[in-house]
Design goal:
alpha+beta; six-stranded mixed beta sheet
């Protein structure tokens, strides 16, 4: 089940709080005033065939987001034919009559799009991407072709292959993931068999396998009709011309049968249901509880959102106080009111510490609810929750793609794309009495569904009285799936049109790439500050990167940098942890401190008008840490739980193992930044203090600022930090180059009964500052850096159905980083997948063509039109400039590199840097069924390594 747009926006808003300036006396009134202005302007018209069309004009960047949303999700499926809506999300990218094979994905690579993407929920399926403005007519032509000229191209072979892709997606996200079956178990108990939310969006493997071509065609003709679809264009375009194009390409698609609204229907739990499952990938016991509530936009949904936020999301929250601080049973509690178009559910999740009985957790849950019943929610806490709405709203509409999604969602739900303003007003109107009323109505004393997911062999940790959950787990059988060949062309009579649609429209006028203007200064303490003024929304985002991070951890105390970073936001010398949290929220800000491989980073978002007081809090965090022993114990236990869970998660195991193999045990980058259980247990708060005193200095810090303030205002606000934060020298490790590659070797990590094998193939290659780094990245585009345009994807996913996704790329810093090919493949084709990757690598230099080079050049140059659309992209640009000494217009220098690339140059780079005989071949999977076969890969006997 998805979280609907309003609750989704509000839940994001509730993650931090307070749009109120420091001098405001009445936060609620200020928020209400701000709420009245929170809207997205739009134009809407409807074609005679029923297609709703929405335009939003945004001239800030030369790009347009194109969003086609069909009002059909898994709720419209039949029992026994589940997963169809999601299957269609996949099929519509493959081919249509005039786009041809490869469909939108191939066109995306040519035009420099962000990558054709889509998603399916219980209630809708959307297809969306951002493209340079000169490609808008092409996109409108393509989206119309998908809607009106698609279904004839689907053959039995195409369907069979895409079934395998979708099943791989299910294995990756559900079957091979810890706690992956939780939602399946809950919804089966929460909703009757004939309720549309009883089954999962991804469907069941059995239903997907049983789907026929006739089933697929019936589903398409029922739901993929203009009168059930919304088209949104958001960005820099001429609305008069765009309307002409929409009318030209969409108008002759026939209206479908009327689509009746789906009836609202709540879940039903007549008596409490307790279910338990032994999870192959879980190392920690997890309790999840669900109560049936109300659907999207129901009057009570707003108060339920506030209730969920108040109960769990701050240090004042009842559940934090009882479960985390008092009982010390878990590092946190997650609560949310998740709603769909026809029903909703209030969800509570506690992933407990290792070996904690879930009966104890349930006892603490009861105490936390009792605490709420005794105390209720105060006006102060309610206003704090409401206050962050403005900040999060602006963050949600800071890209044209985000705005297109918001407009489309509200249109299909209400017919009013601008409903977001109504929803915000309703949230601001919530009272303490409303919050208490919805708790009494839907939660207090009401039956619920409770699931206990526990490690294998630890059923005693489950709730008392739990029945065994009915979870269908796939058996790994060699050769279970027949080979498919979707490459054959379908034979069909072409769908008629009033004009020739077979010719792709041309480009419009080439947009000029807008490289943001960068300002640059230094504070009195020597810290360099780079900024970009950007007034699209009234926010400021900034970060302070303090070089060091994991690199400065001592080998016997790995994990200190991570713990130190987490502790910096756990109060200051002047404020308790709770007081600091509330001070941040009162400014509508978020302040996070994290340790990474090569730096400690302070990341901040705030309203522009609250920049100075937010900066004051950052200064207090940096210069006056609290070092609270109680908080240290809680944070330490939380990290130990993270490490324990990583021990069973196949992707985490693969990432840790690959780093050790390519960097070697003496390089800090080979280590898990969290540390090990042994190293973390040995760390004291004195270790954190020593790291802080030695390594956090403006002499190794860089600050990047993007937002709605000029340089003068920012530097004026920073003057105090420049004086107060004193510099001292910090010795950073010297940059290191890659050693000579060793001969290829296969390494295997055993995860018994894994439903997929995780492949990570690569070696330590280049630094970002090496002359060949960007040219090698260009050479890799067609291999695995180009999404659906890449050979790895086209052959392993689109050709064979072995995987849901695969990619490759170079990553480096001032030191050499790895080249990596990564994928999760169906377990019973582990060898075949590795063999195909090997063959693609081996053949790549000789088979790389002039057409490949043209596609690469088109994408890498044209995509620069959208390179700096978001604040995050601009911050990344500033980080590159400050870290590597690049010029502010380095994107232009890269364009020159792309332009100068020749076929022989790409082939030479590929032979030098993409040699499969000099790579680590790591497999994380089921050794019993897959390890013996891997000798056939041709790299001697595989080496089994521990987790």
């Amino acid at each position: 089940m998805k979280m609907s747009p309003l609750p989704l926006l509000l839940a994001a808003c509730f993650a931090s709080a307070a749009s109120v300036p420091a001098h405001a006396a009445k936060p609620a009134a200020a928020s209400a005033a701000a709420g009245a202005q929170l809207k997205v302007d739009y134009q809407k018209f409807t074609l005679p065939n029923g297609l709703d069309v929405i335009f939003h004009i945004d001239r800030s960047d030369p790009v347009v987001a194109v969003n086609l949303t069909a009002h059909v999700g898994s709720a419209r499926e039949k029992a026994g034919r589940t997963g169809f809506a999601h299957l269609f999300e996949h099929l519509l990218f493959l081919e249509s009559e005039n786009l041809g094979k490869g469909g939108l994905d191939k066109m995306t690579a040519r035009i420099g799009g962000s990558g054709a993407n889509g998603s399916t929920s219980t209630d809708r399926t959307n297809y969306l991407q951002t493209v340079p403005k000169d490609a808008l007519e092409k996109m409108i032509w393509a989206e119309a072709d998908k809607l009106g000229w698609f279904i004839n191209t689907v053959t039995d072979a195409v369907l069979a292959k895409e079934k395998q892709v979708v099943k791989n997606e299910k294995r990756q996200g559900v079957d091979n993931a810890p706690y992956g079956h939780t939602r399946y178990v809950i919804n089966k108990a929460l909703y009757p068999l004939d309720h549309p939310y009883n089954w999962q969006v991804i469907g069941s493997l059995e239903d997907l396998q049983n789907a026929t071509l006739d089933d697929v065609k019936e589903f398409f003709r029922l739901w993929y009709v203009p009168n059930n679809v919304t088209l949104v264009l958001a960005g820099d375009f001429d609305p008069v011309q765009a309307r002409k194009w929409v009318e030209k390409y969409f108008s002759e698609i026939k209206r479908g049968a009327p689509v009746a609204p789906i009836a609202k229907r709540a879940g039903v739990v007549k008596e409490t249901v307790k279910l338990a499952h032994e999870d192959n990938f879980a190392k920690l016991p997890e309790l999840t509880m669900a109560w049936p509530t109300v659907e999207d936009l129901h009057p009570d949904s707003y108060a339920l959102e506030v209730l969920a936020e108040y109960l769990s999301q701050t240090k004042r929250a009842p559940f934090y106080k009882v479960v985390v601080e008092d009982s010390k049973l878990a590092p946190g509690v997650q609560i949310g009111n998740q709603t769909g178009e026809i029903a909703g559910q209030f969800m509570l999740r506690v992933r407990a510490f290792e070996n904690k009985p879930l009966d104890e957790v349930m006892g603490a849950v009861g105490k936390a609810f009792a605490k709420f019943e005794d105390e209720g929610i105060s006006e102060r806490d309610l206003n704090r929750i409401k206050a962050g709405l403005e900040t999060r709203f602006y963050a949600s509409v800071s890209s044209v793609l985000g705005k297109s999604a918001l407009l489309a969602e509200y249109n299909y739900l209400t017919g009013n794309p601008g409903y977001v303003a109504d929803g915000i007003r309703k949230t601001l109107a919530v009272t303490p009495a409303d919050v208490r009323r919805v708790y009494d109505t839907y939660i207090k004393g009401k039956p619920y569904v409770a699931t206990s997911f526990v490690p294998k062999g630890r059923l005693a940790l489950a709730l008392s009285g739990s029945a065994k959950a009915d979870v269908v787990e796939e058996k790994v059988v060699q050769g279970a799936e027949a080979a498919v060949d979707p490459s054959a062309n379908a034979s069909y009579a072409k769908t008629p049109s009033s004009f020739d649609r077979s010719t792709e429209p041309g480009y419009g006028e080439t947009p000029a790439v807008k490289v943001p203007q960068v300002w640059d200064t230094r504070l009195a303490n020597g810290m360099r500050v780079l900024g970009i003024e950007n007034r699209e929304v009234p926010l400021v985002q900034f970060d302070i990167a303090i070089d060091g991070g994991l690199l400065l951890d001592q080998p016997d105390k790995v994990g200190v940098a991570n713990l130190m970073a987490r502790m910096l936001t756990q109060g200051t010398a002047r404020r308790t942890p709770q007081e600091l949290e509330e001070a941040i929220q009162q400014l509508g800000a978020s302040i996070n401190v994290s340790a990474r491989a090569e730096d400690v980073r302070v990341s901040v978002t705030t309203l522009a008008r609250n920049f100075q007081p937010t900066l004051d809090l950052v200064q207090e965090i940096l210069l006056q840490p609290r070092w609270d022993e109680k908080e240290f114990a809680l944070v330490k236990q939380s990290v130990l739980s993270q490490i324990r869970q990583q021990d069973a998660e196949p992707n985490a195991i693969a990432s840790r193992s690959f780093a050790r193999l390519v960097y070697g045990k003496d390089d800090p980058r080979s280590r898990n930044i969290l540390g090990t259980a042994e190293s973390v247990n040995a760390i004291t708060i004195a270790d954190l203090q020593r790291y802080y005193a030695a390594n956090l200095s403006p002499s190794v810090a860089r600050m990047h600022v993007v937002g709605a303030l000029p340089k003068a205002a920012v530097t004026r606000s920073l003057a105090g930090l420049g004086r107060a934060w004193k510099a001292h020298p910090v010795k950073l490790p010297a940059a290191t180059a890659a050693p000579a590659p060793a001969p290829a070797k296969v390494y295997f990590v055993d995860v018994p009964d894994a439903k997929q094998s995780v492949l990570q193939v690569g070696y330590r290659a280049l630094a970002a500052t090496d002359a060949d780094y960007y040219p090698a990245t260009v050479a890799n585009y067609i291999l695995g850096g180009g999404g659906f345009a890449s050979r790895l994807t086209q052959q392993l996913r689109e050709g064979k159905g072995y995987t849901y996704g695969i990619n490759s790329g170079f990553s480096g810093s001032n030191s050499a980083g790895p080249f990596l090919i990564a994928s999760g493949v169906r377990s019973n084709v582990t060898l075949e997948s590795a063999q195909l990757v090997k063959q693609i690598l081996r053949d790549y230099p000789a088979t790389y063509s002039a057409a490949d080079l043209e596609t690469t050049k088109n994408f890498l140059v044209k995509s620069n039109a959208r390179a700096f659309e978001t604040a995050g992209a601009k911050l990344g640009m500033l980080d590159n400039i400050s870290k590597y000494g690049w010029r502010p217009d380095y994107v232009k220098e890269r364009e020159a590199v792309v332009g100068s690339m020749t076929l022989p140059r790409v082939q030479a780079l590929s032979r030098q840097y993409l040699d499969p005989s000099k790579m680590v071949w790591l497999v994380v999977g089921d050794a019993r069924t897959q390890l013996p076969r891997l000798k056939e890969l041709g790299f001697d006997e595989p080496v089994v390594i521990p987790r």
